[in-house]
Structures
1.
Amino acid sequence: MKHEKMKIIKMLDEILSFSFLHQATKMDIKIEIDGNNTIIKFNDNSKDITGAKLEEIRELLNIEKQSEVEEYYWELIGQRDYADEFTIVGFMTDKATINYSADKGLELTLYRTNV
């Protein structure tokens, strides 16, 4: 469980960067840590997320978790000025759900077993 809190912070950094990019002005974050399991729930009022972009993010977040990639790359999340690192977040996540509607905004839940 080395660096688990920092990994969560880096994952949230990527999500927040995406939200700011999509003009979100309200964001709610809930983190539940229970032993080796972490659930991150994120809601915002992002604007103009297309169906294609939503599907792209859904696919990136639900790729198979790869602990060896996670250990090497997690520190790189958030090092760029644009949001495109959902692939690394996906490598660190066991499962993700994501939904978007113009009236409700973005709803994202990440499920993770801590390494």
2.
Amino acid sequence: MSYTWPEVIFFLGVLILVTFLISIFTVGIFESRRSKRQADAAEELRELARRYEELARSTAETQERMAADLAELRSRTASIEQILRTVE
């Protein structure tokens, strides 16, 4: 079967159009996957920041309790020392 030049040009145009549409579709898929990965990474960072804030808050509360306990122990030690001085 023999094709004329206008038919060949038409078929080449259709082939180029189909190739262009397939490449746009492929690029769109890759871009959507990349944006999903970026969104997942951002969500992981938000979760990490939330866990860090929770840990920092917990650490601060523990330090406050330890400071209060240490102050109480110093007070008791001072009381015991005063009692021992009065006994001597």
3.
Amino acid sequence: MTDSPVHLPTQAAEFSGPARQAVAIYCPGWTESLLALLADRPTAYEAAWRFAPEQRAHVLEVVYEGADPLRIALVDGVHNQLIAALVRGRTLVLSPFPLYREPGWEGELFAPETSLVLPTLPSLLDAGDRG
């Protein structure tokens, strides 16, 4: 299980819904695995943060029973706004599709109902030793 890829978000956006503030992210290369998870309609997951000093990244590992871990790296200096939103307690939403259209993209775009919502995460501030 340790060979699952680490995904880097290339798109992020904060949004508000009824009684919830969230940040949605999209990472190229995870569409198939997210759609497979969504097809199974998962509910229970375990999540943990660790700091990877060699990459200057906070790595979130999300594990749903029976699925490969999903790893997301938030790099210091690159993903600072996203890190700050999560520290403020925003809900994390994982989109299998881009949040906004980029040149050449003709496919589906982000929709909350076709995304994976992680309503609770451990504190990013407790991610352990920063090296």
